[in-house]
Amino acid sequence: xxxxxxxxxxxxxxxxxxxxxxxxxxxxxxxxxxxxxxxxxxxxxxxxxxxxxxxxxxxxxxxxxxxxxxxxxxxxxxxxxxxxxxxxxxxxxxxxxxxxxxxxxxxxxxxxxxxxxxxxxxxxxxxxxxxxxxxxxxxxxxxxxxxxxxxxxxxxxxxxxxxxxxxxxxxxxxxxxxxx
Length: 180
Ligand SMILES: [Zn+2]
Description:
Blueprint: H1 2-19, H2 27-31, H3 47-53, H4 56-64, E1 82-86, E2 92-95, E3 99-100, E4 108-109, E5 118-123, E6 130-135, E7 141-146, E8 156-159, E9 164-168
The protein binds zinc ion.
Zinc ion (ZN) is lined by residues 86, 88-89, 91, 135, 137-138, 140.
């Protein structure tokens, strides 16, 4: 177990730069949703309510714009058919059809499940210029989108496993996603 953790830490360090990831616990991450708090999303909850609903890890990533370490999330290597919902509000955000192995240690998708499911926003924290991806329904932080993806749009949505919940095709919460 100890060796695994050390390897995971090394892997995280090596691959973080390539994927534009950031250390989960840096103070700047905690403030990066501050301007989002003034945006109006269909689902409104107080931070106190979110804290009760989410696990501490989910809260840190979804509500404080944290980033889980590479290769530690539960979905970075999953290939089963199904859908990925927002872990905060349950909205369907991504489909397994669009998931691909980007070798970066986070679940990566070439598309969102349907138009309007996410909101993109400039993120200039950590001296980088990236595009942050938020759930359009509840405003929670999901990850970032980069323009080096494999699909026709050339996009790579690099998403934290903590931000999403997978439902396979046999799951009671699985439904066929709406058409794009
Ligand atoms: Zn959501």
